[in-house]
Amino acid sequence: MERRKFIRNTLAGSALLVSNQFPLSAFANDPNIVKLTILHTNDVHSRIDPFPMDGGRNAGLGGAAKRAQMITDIRAKEKNVLLLDAGDIFQGTPYFNFFGGELEIKLMSKMGYDIATMGNHDFDAGIDGFNTQLPHANFPFVVSNYNFDDTILNGKIEKYKIFEMDGLKIGVVGTGIELKGLVPDTHYKATRYLDPITSAQHYATMLKKEMNCDYVICLSHLGYKYGREKVSDVILAQNTQDIDLIIGGHTHTFMREADRRRNKNGDPVIVTQAGWAGILLGHIDVYFERSKNKRCITCKNQLVG
User: By the 8 A CB rule, do 300 and 41 touch?
Assistant: First the structure.
């Protein structure tokens, strides 16, 4: 209990974009500090090549090769790196129309993605089409609120995943948007949509309380926020507990500064998203303290590219 209290209090008092007044470089050689680097994408939408040099707003931006090089460079410098995606891997360029998502998944596997969740456009080739591409993924997909029991994906999509590195236990849970109205019924077939708040809460509490995870991440494809009470990352953050970080998608929101919200217990939750098309790569550094079981000290969020 004291450890979790320490996490809440220290995160609440920390700036997400760290200024020169808080030199994180002071932690670099401290053996009591563990640094976790979280890299993330969302809504890449089959953007394999950079945008064409046509004078448009995004001309020359994005592309898998540039992203792969950034990931490689960061991994060469950092010891503990997790690479995550918050859904909508498919749809948006002819690569998807011709290859049905195979190239996208193979490239993510080459880049060493650790985990992803599913977005609504990942059903654009139908649930059977998605299933066809799964063997190309050397990483798991997690969605806590889609019930696939009566579909071809039964037993192939996980609810959560735990990563252990450098003495830390990091739990990851996924949440997906309601498919009805966004995706033809024939594409998702007998997939049953469950309440994302209830589902995320169930697995987050399991991860934090029963499996003793030090940090819980929710990969969400709900959307950052809306002008009404439609469920979103903000609503999820405010109506759950035991989630430390929400990495979102769907609304294509470029968040150079992460949003800090309070959960239903009044504790801080970080909400962030990295835009779309792989134009920028989300980069979060989280610092943990080993001693006395006290963990998270502070967090730095940025978009790079």
Answer: no
- Which pLDDT tens digit goes with each residue over 168-205? 999 999 999 999 999 999 999 999 999 999 999 999 99
> Angle at the Cα of 221 (from 5 to 169), degrees rounded to 5?
35
Conformation bin of residue 94: beta by default, left when phi > 0, alpha when psi is -120 to 50: alpha
Angle at 106 between CA 105 and CA 110, to 5 degrees: 115
Instruction: Tell me if residue 213 falls in helix, strand or coil.
Output: coil
One-letter amino acid of 154: N
Residues composing the chain: 305
Cα(102)–Cα(24) distance, integer angstroms: 40
Higher pLDDT, 289 or 246: 246
Dihedral over Cα of 178, 183, 185, 189: its sign: negative
Query: In the sheet where 281-289 sits, what is the strand order?
Result: 115-116, 81-85, 33-41, 281-289, 296-304
Question: What is the DSSP code (8-state) at residue 52?
Answer: P
Amino acid at 152: I
pLDDT digits (tens, 9 = 90+) for 270-303: 999 999 999 999 999 999 988 755 456 566 777 7
For residue 132, the surrounding DSSP H or E stretch is helix 126-133
Q: How far apart are CA 104 and CA 95, in angstroms?
A: 8
pTM of the model: 0.90
pLDDT at 21 over 50: no
Could you tell me the domains of the chain? 2-18+32-304 (3.60.21.10)
Q: Using CA atoms, how far apart are residues 10 and 214, in angstroms rounded to an integer?
A: 14
For tokens 């217990």, what's the residue?
Answer: 265
Query: Is 87 in a helix, a strand, or coil?
Result: coil
3-state secondary structure of 239: coil
